[in-house]
Amino acid sequence: MSLILGISAPTLAQAASADCVPLKALQPPQANTTAPHKPFFIDTSGLSGSGAMPIHDPHDPLYPEAIDLPDNALPPVDKTGNYILGTSHTLPAQWQNIQLPEGRIISFTLASSPTSGYSPGTVRDDPAPCTTSTGEAGMVHVSTSVPGDPSNLTVPGAHPAPWTRTVDVYIPPNTPTDRPLPFLIFGDGSNNGLYPGRDLFAMVDGLMKEKRIPPMIVIGVGAGGGDAQGSERGREYDTMSGAYADWVEAHVLPLVEKKASLTLSRNPEERATMGFSSSGAAAFAMAWFRPNLYHRVLAYSPSLVNQQWPHDPALPGGGWQLHSPWAGTPEAVPPHPGAALIPAAPLAPLHIWYEVGDQDLFYPVPSMPDGMHDWVLAGENMARVLADKGYDYQFVFARNARHVDGPTIEQTLPEALEWLWRPHMPPTTP
């Protein structure tokens, strides 16, 4: 999800008679903000309204403890835990004059077909003047949720449609061809615009030259189109299952090997998945549901919230249920379908680095007052779960940062990649 919201526009109640509503809306009308023990509670107590988005306090008592860093300081690459960045996000000096990558870049296009997977694709039609614009002044079509269950969204404008996407592959210079190679794969590739462009390839080049990360192939996979519920991008990234990882394994990686004349590693310790917003949620899902394929996860503003569509009654909270129970049941425990997944499962051999901003997304879906659409709270809940289980993880809370915040990504990505690819650290006992 990549919608930027504010809090100064007309309320949803004022716009209820229109076919579309302003994105600048803090929360849906008739939301439960006063009864914590009732279903679908939305906690607004830790938010400040002094900005384009509500500003979250990193020391909110709801959040796990974290270490404050001096301004422009970064978390240590050899430590785990929770860290808070300062308000300045300056590109490190060594990356300010980044050079073009010295290796090869191979690009190819995938299109939907009966044999391509995700066929047919999905698209959402929003009637004019509603759009899926990411601009702050944008409008969005009013979808509806199932009566009595705001976590189950209906999207009447969704229908089958074809898709196309671009895949970019970076092969560093002097890449060996006589053995399987580690790789980093990321979503929201070149046809979406969320990731930091091909500068990522150059940054990886520099880190490899400095031997801060091992030699590897980097693969950027474009999204299937659109955004959020009813879109192909949302369908692929926000579905909490191994489906996207399986699709990549069957339809992307074999073509990468063929077109680049190389072999990719099958060792999950040598495979990393990365994403931004909903593709960040997909990065988590690829490793959680397919730990036989991926052990390393890197994500910015991951949508660990209830964006899954179509609604799955076996996992009614979507990505929120990775870390927390479905909000429609105050005390969901196994075998209830609303139980949280990671807390109830054995420790998985994963290494996880992720970030959220203090002005990250909060209730961008007007029709879903479901208690599961606070990106920051989701990230904090995940940090608590990972710490309690003894995971190898680092969580960064960035002050003065919005959703998929460009300066924050540039500031932190080199160290994040170094942390992610450092030698394996055995799990700790909580």
From TrEMBL:
One Pfam family in the UniProt entry: Esterase
Q: Which domain of life is it from?
A: Bacteria
Report what the protein is called: Esterase
What taxonomic ancestry is recorded? Bacteria, Pseudomonadati, Pseudomonadota, Alphaproteobacteria, Acetobacterales
